[in-house]
Amino acid sequence: MAAEVLACDWGTTNLRAWTLDGQGAVIAQRDFRLGVAKLAPGEAARRFQAEVRPALGAEGLPAILCGMIGSNIGWATAAYVDCPAGLADLAGRLTVAADGVRIAPGLRCEGIAGAPDVMRGEETQILGWLAQHPERRRGRHLLCHPGTHAKWVLIEDGRVVRFITAMTGELFAVLGAHSLLASDAPADDDVAFEAGVAAAGAGDALAARLFSARSRVVGGQADAASTPSYLSGLLIGAEIAAVPALLGEGTSHAALLGDPALCARYARALRQRGVEAEIFDGETAAIAGLWALYAR
């Protein structure tokens, strides 16, 4: 079938683009190193027309975009939609960036520390996850989107009710590069990871628990090469122990949506704590979400 729409997930570090047919199936795909953080004001529009459209033969197609391209450092600011919100709410608030180009809004809800919580880009994956199977649009679901800024999302009858962001991925990166815990070793030691999950306890007193990543090495109980894996387990363990409870949810079951490798790490930590976890691919969900917004 012929391409009907150009769909793009345009984030801080890169751009993923697909042409989709009239049923939402992928015809062509390209990745571009055109992260929003690297672009000067006005550059997004120029490079989209000069590079992205021609690369996919999509010069005349309507385009639907999501991600940081709709932020205040992107092409055009797509205002946040307040929760509770579902597909109709977001589709009704698309921002027109140029002729034939629309950008999805982000989501905003009441935060846990007096300031609002926000997401931009993940909401489209969530919409796609909901659109993929009708039964997901019924009842109550707890969904986690692991990442640099992980999102824990409460969904009721197809609408995002509330969510909480945890800066777990960013904290791991900063501590692993700019602290006494810095190491070039890979985080691939399953035993150390599981020890870190156990050391997270109930997720409280994280600053104190973090010191165990140092003391276990200098105290002679562990090899320094295991520190990144232990640190990863400790941070993820603290997150999964504490954050869902802030949503008022128990954690007997969670859906994990995003990068499969990172989701697998979260699933290991959740199962260690007796929580059933199911993994769903983030890219597939992003495509489904973009198509759902366009079709709506």
Description:
- This protein is an alpha/beta fold and 296 residues long.
- It has a domain at 122-296: Nucleotidyltransferase, domain 5.
- The protein is 37% helix and 25% strand.
- It contains ten helices and 14 strands.
- The protein has helices at 43-55, 87-91, 122-132, 168-178, 190-199, 206-210, 212-218, 227-246, 260-272, 282-295, and strands spanning 5-10, 15-20, 26-32, 63-66, 81-82, 95-98, 101-103, 107-110, 116-119, 140-145, 150-156, 159-166, 253-258, 276-281.
- The strands form three sheets. It has a six-stranded mixed β-sheet, sandwiched between helices. Strands 12-11-10-13-14 form a five-stranded mixed β-sheet.
- Strand 2 (15-20) and strand 3 form a beta hairpin.
- The longest helix has 20 residues, at 227-246.
- The chain is globular.
- The model has no long low-confidence stretch (mean pLDDT 96).
Strand content: 15-25%
Largest sheet, strands/sense/barrel: 6 strands, mixed
Distinct helical segment count: 10
User: What's the helix-strand series?
Assistant: EEEHEEHEEEEHEEEHHHHHEHEH
User: How would you name the CATH homologous superfamily of the domain at 122-296?
Assistant: 2-keto-3-deoxy-galactonokinase, C-terminal domain
Number of E-type strands: 14
Helicity level:
25-40%
What is the CATH topology classification name of the domain at 122-296? Nucleotidyltransferase, domain 5
- Pick out the low-confidence regions: none
Determine and state the CATH class of the domain at 122-296.
Answer: Alpha Beta
Categorize the overall geometry.
globular
Q: Which sequence of strands runs across the widest sheet? A: 3-2-1-4-7-6
CATH hierarchy: architecture of the domain at 122-296 = 2-Layer Sandwich
The radius of gyration is 20 Å
Structural class: alpha/beta
